Amino acid sequence: MSPAPPDxxxxxxxxxxxxxxxxxxxxxALAGGLLAGCGLVPSPAKPTSTREPAHHIAYSVVGSGSANxxxxxxxxSNDGSGLHESVPxxxxxxxxxxxxxxxxxxxxxxxxxxxxxLSFSLLCTITVDGVDEGSRGSFGCSHSVDLTAFRTAHPSVxxxxxxxxxxxxxxxxxxxxxxxxxxxxxxxxxxxxxTAEAASILFAHDGGVDKPVQSLGGDANRCTYLFETTQxxxxxxxxxxGRVNPLPGTRIGGLGVPGYWLDAGTLSRLDVQLxxxxxxxxxxxxxLPVDLKATAVEIFRTARPRLPR
Length: 309
Hints:
By secondary structure, the protein is α+β, with helices and mostly antiparallel strands. The protein folds into 2 domains: 56-153, Immunoglobulin-like (Sandwich), CATH 2.60.40; 188-306, 3-Layer(aba) Sandwich (Protein Transport Mog1p, Chain A). The protein has 4 helices and 15 strands. The strands form 3 sheets. The chain has a 7-stranded antiparallel β-sheet with strand order 9-10-11-15-14-13-12, covered by helices on one side. Strand 14 (267-274) and strand 15 form a beta hairpin. Helix 3 (195-205) packs antiparallel against helix 4. It starts with 16 loop residues before the first helix and ends in a 6-residue tail after the last helix. Residues 29-48 and 163-184 have low confidence and may be disordered.
C-alpha cells in the first residue's frame, strides 16, 4: 500500500507579525474602497470657497482746470469687464453707479487727458458701500480696490448697502449749532459739519425742499453727505498744509480768508486757504435746484471753528 501524499499546506510558512499587518491593511483598504463606491462610506469633505458678495459701487472723476482734449475714462463694470467713456476736458465731471456681481473682487478706475494748463488735475474716486477713497494726479488719476481686502478693513460695513433708512431733519429755529457728531460709526472727517447742520444748510438753499442725509462716507479728513441716490452730495475735504490753487477759480470775499469759487455747473467747488491748510467744499446736485455757492460758503462757515488752527 502506497504511503499517503504529504499535506500540500504542511510546509507553508505562517505569516509573521509584519506580514499580518500588511495583509490586514490591504484588506481594509479594499473593503473601504468597495464600500465608498457603493455609497456606504462618505467621501472626505471638499474644501469650500467663499465668493465675494455683491457690492454697491459709485465711480466719479472730477477735473479742475482745462484739458486740450476729452478726458478718457476706463473702469470695471459689474461683471469685472472693462468699460470706456469720455467727457469734455473743460472742468470734467463724470459719475456712474452699479452693483457688482457676486465673485467680483477687483475694481479699477483710470482717467487721463493731455493739457497745457499747469493747474489741470483729475480726482478719481471709487465709493464701495458708502465708503470712498480717491487718487489725484496732474494729467491723470488711477484708483483700484480689492473688495476682499476692503471687507477686512471695514468689517462693520454691510456689503451691497447703499443708504440707511431715511430720517427727517427739521430746519433749525435758532442760530445755535449742535456739537459735531461723535458716534463711532461716523467717519472722523465728518466732525467738521454734522449731518443735521448739512441738512439744515441745504434746506435753506434748495427752495425749502427737505432732503435729509441718507448716508455718510469718508475718512480722517474727508466726509461725503449723500442726499440723493444719484449726484446729490456735499463733500468736505481738509488737507493739512495744503495750498489753494487760485486758478481756474474766482476770488470771493466775505470769508475773512482767501477763498476761490469754481463754478462747474451741477458740480462746483469752494477752496479756502487757512494758515494750517486747505479746506474744500464740493457741492453736486443734478436735479434739485440748489444755490451751490451759498451752500458751500455756509458749509465752510459752519466748519471753520472746528478746523485746525
